[in-house]
Model the fold of this input.
Amino acid sequence: MRGRVAVLGAGGFVGARFLEMAVREREIDVVPVVRALRSAGRSAHLGLDYRLGDASRPESLGRALEGCDVVVDLTKGDPANILRTTESVHAAATATGARLVVHLSSAVVYGTLDSPNVADDAPPVVSLRSAYAREKAAAERFIGAHMKESRVATVVLRPSLIWGPGSPYVLGAATDLLRGSAYLVGGGAGLCTLMHVDNLVQSILAVIRHPAAPSGFYHVGDDEVTTWRDFYFGIAAGIGANAATIHMLPGGDYRPALRDRVRDLQNLGAYEWMKDRVPLETRTAIKRRLARGRDGGLVMVAAGSARPSVTREVWELQRTRFRLPTARFQSEFGRQNSVSFEQGMSASIAWLRYIGATRSDAAPMPLAAAAD
Amino acid sequence: MDSRTVAPDERPVPVKIAVIGCGAVVEGLYRRALERLEARGLARVVALIDPNAARTSALARHFRSARGFATPDDAFAATNPGLAIVTSPAAAHAEHTVSALAAGIDVLCEKPMAAHRGDAERMVAAARGSGRVLAIGMTRRMYPCLVEARSLVARSALGDDLRFVYREGHVYDWPVSTSAAFRRATAGGGVLVDLGSHVLDVVAALFGTLEVNAYADDAEATGVDANALIDIATPIATGVVQLSWSQPLLGGLHVMGSAGELILDPPRLDSLMYRSRGGTWEKVACKATWPRDLARRGPRETPRTHRDCIYYQLVQVLRAIVHGEPVPVSGEQGLGIVSAIDSCYERASSLRIPWLTAMEQAEADARHWRARRCVAA
Done:
């Protein structure tokens, strides 16, 4: 390894796991970069020195990237900031002389796939419904436009649903199963295009280790073909939820509901304007209160008693028929997926039990086991 | 509550308050409660103390009588406060508290009381020696749900053979202004010191003196614990506490006894469920009240928010100063929590993270902070 590796978005789900794996592999000298010190709390156990830097401001980011050979951009943030952040990362990495930027994009830039043969360098779809997908696509277009003349190599990875311990997808499915509000569209036969977080981190590490990683776009994903039925039934079995309570919804086109109109409102510029004027602390408090409202009474709710809360996003995900091919990545960087679906499910279940998301009143792992 | 009282004296009302440490805790939690006290004529903030002048001047905009100071001694000499609220980093709590008590000033010290047992003992001794009030800011004692839960336990509604599981955690999001909370040297530890101070105090409030049987955490190298697991015994209950700064732990406090069980979710002020053995779960009405001002038989109110609880806690501390009433949590009780935390760290082992591979767990074990200390020794 030639130099230090800056990790932007180090306080997020993928960023935190990246730090853990990189530190424990002892091979990479990581420099976590966060916008606010609060983001250091999640990985405080690792004892790392954090740098402060606002990824959407090149002058701020430049100082944070000093002395770093590689920049791993795992920032997520508000959709409104995605393109600006991508531009800023590119400018700062160029200015500080980094050799490589690893940019985490998403399979959402293709919307609903209608073919299994989408080339890695196929451009993102132009008309996408969600603001997140549109901005991710815009970020890819920016990178693509500057890739050839840039002094910094840029590798763009496109995973789909990142899962594993800590994943919102895993927690969301588990809480829905415990409440009895889980649902499957079309019998759950659609493809659940997963990428385990450890497989994603190993893929990023492989790009970093590559002596001359070639700029380009790469689809990445788990090896096995998995259905939504596999995913939900696997979690249900692991946490003691009754899979018979899963609401089976017929396939077909999605019918918009009230929440979709709310989502459409959120995609308006006026919503962003208003949100920017509400202090971060207030937004955090509101979000946490809403989350508590959603999690509340987990133990009390009788199985099968809650109505499914159907969203367009999940409906369309559950109707996925094709997955992106990953041969190009494997050809360039080697096969990096060490976690199978079975192993990933086992780890996810262990995590759900650890956080208390189970049907039973199981206690945390006893300390006697910790000493083994 | 602790039986310690101070003799009622002739403290003038409004009580003059000095705030030592003007970081996120004051801005995020105390400021509005202090403004309410001022608006009701119960107190007046006269001194804001912090080495960072930008912080004191930003806060001073909210308090007409407040002046900014870099050190407590300067502030005490210039403003003669009746109460010092210590909200500086935990490592400085002992120094700031002892100096205030030595100057004849009553103290409300924010949790964690101290980074180490020795510091907490010094604070308690200073309070005894000076005859002043030393209160510890454990705001959850004001929560109506905890008051009702204590009542259920006290009247044996759960029976005996009490066992509990207490899970509390979420991804850390407190708007810290420095990294002091993530350094063992300045904070004394991680999630155990931070969230654990509250959680252990809730357990102590319900079941009495804590005895730590076993403890494990995930701190590696120079890091602090982001996840912790404690095996605890008290005079009337045994159980496990699980804490996290990185995981959304679910369930709250679940207590099971021979006659019934309860579930308490302390981040919510009114969340208490109870069922007798074989019965169905019922929500318990949480309507505990606290005095809203310093009138001896004045109006009482039920807190609705965490910030309300900070206000009522401050009122109760002022009542201790003015009327000699007990404080919600005394220095001695705070010392009990610090001692339990010290006891945890003294016996810390590497936490088993059940989703790690054996190889990664072995690496985490090898990097555990206690293991590295043993090797270094």
The domain at 141-289+338-370 of chain B is CATH 3.30.360.10 (Dihydrodipicolinate Reductase; domain 2). The two ends of chain B are 43 Å apart (CA to CA). Residues 1-8 of chain B have pLDDT under 50 and may be disordered.
